[in-house]
Amino acid sequence: MNDIIRAMEERRSIRNFKRDLPAKADLEQIIEAGLYAASARGKQAVITVAVTDRNVRDKISAANCKIGGWEDGFDPFYGAPVIFIVLAEKNWANRVYDGSLVLGNMMLAAHALGLGSIWIHRAKEEFETEEWKQFLLDIGVEGEWEGVGHLAVGYIDGAIPEAAARRDGRVFWVE
Questions:
Q1: Residue 3 CA: distances (Å) to CA of 25, 46, 155, 169
Q2: What is the mean pLDDT of the chain?
Q3: Is the pLDDT assigned to residue 1 strictly greater than 90?
């Protein structure tokens, strides 16, 4: 079987990570995979913010937790030490589609490198707040951006979950 197809079939969302930070070279490869995602009209209107600073990571986790309605202290990133934030130009009609392709490429790249990942929502709501808009300005990101998603990444703590059975009746051929 083709390695890419195998990765698609074997990749799982991970909900238990070790605290150890992956090698920067691996993180750079994951980002690079995202940069090569397809984009509507070749616009490449998606950016990635790579967060490895533990304090910033924990602030993002707390904000995400609050938006999600969980009790203080819950970590919606399941302990992952790295958070990739994928944002797209706010006025680009294909922002969610393009950002989703970036996240998909990054998940597959993480898996191929032996790392776990999980796509976490609520980036849209986070980056609608003044605090997180200011965060983007503080790190040099100008313009209007919409959060598409977060990708929590790290070493898997435990076994890779088994795949759920694929539901029947989801493919229709017109021949």
A1: 21, 26, 21, 26
A2: 97
A3: no
